[in-house]
Amino acid sequence: MAIRNVGVAGCGLMGGGIAQTCAQSGYETVVREVNQQLLDKGMARINEAWDMLAAKGKITRGQVDEYRARLHGTLDLADFADCDLVIEAVIENMEEKLRLFPALDHIVKPGALLLTNTSSLNVTQMGAVTKRPDKVCGLHQNRARMPLLSKQGHPGAFLIRWLGWGGQHIALRSCSYSHRSDELGYRTDG
Ligand SMILES: NC(=O)c1ccc[n+]([C@@H]2O[C@H](COP(=O)([O-])OP(=O)(O)OC[C@H]3O[C@@H](n4cnc5c(N)ncnc54)[C@H](O)[C@@H]3O)[C@@H](O)[C@H]2O)c1
Known about the structure:
5 helices, 190 residues, Rossmann fold, 10 strands, binds nicotinamide-adenine-dinucleotide, 8-stranded mixed beta sheet
């Protein structure tokens, strides 16, 4: 399944960075927060980052406009319905994650991947509260440019370590899911 639409739950430090990276990498991205104030704060942080990159000449104003057009903020989980991939980056609290995963499972289209950016919590447990445990994976951002893809928890769940950060070397740049081999594949252009 090709990944075109990405959802990000949580627009805090990690969720905001992930949403920024996804939009920069060409994905239609929708990021969800729990209230308007937090959403505005998260979106402002992303927009400031793009303005700063443009001011330094690292990206053009045209690119900033493109990225902004691809990024949509929402308070409504239902806006994840058409996502091919949803990345959960809410607070590191298992109760919160165990509330969110069944809700995502209910809303997001069948076959879509549900990833968690948890640092330390059990991914298998999150998969177990959904009807698609084989599509629940762990995602971990890694600043070191080391391509790592390792299994965690459920046999179908992978921990993905991103190669870099900031839009130039993105593991998700070309990302596809193989139902036959139950593998998440990705290519980087870095
Ligand atoms: N290297 C890494 O991959 C790495 C590094 C740091 C943190 N993390 C993990 O990333 C996750 C987020 O960490 P953070 O530092 O961004 O936290 P944060 O507190 O900055 O942001 C979390 C955000 O999630 C929001 N939120 C809470 N419940 C929500 C829900 N149901 N739907 C949408 N948004 C919701 C909160 O309002 C908050 O803004 C945690 O699980 C953390 O352990 C991973």
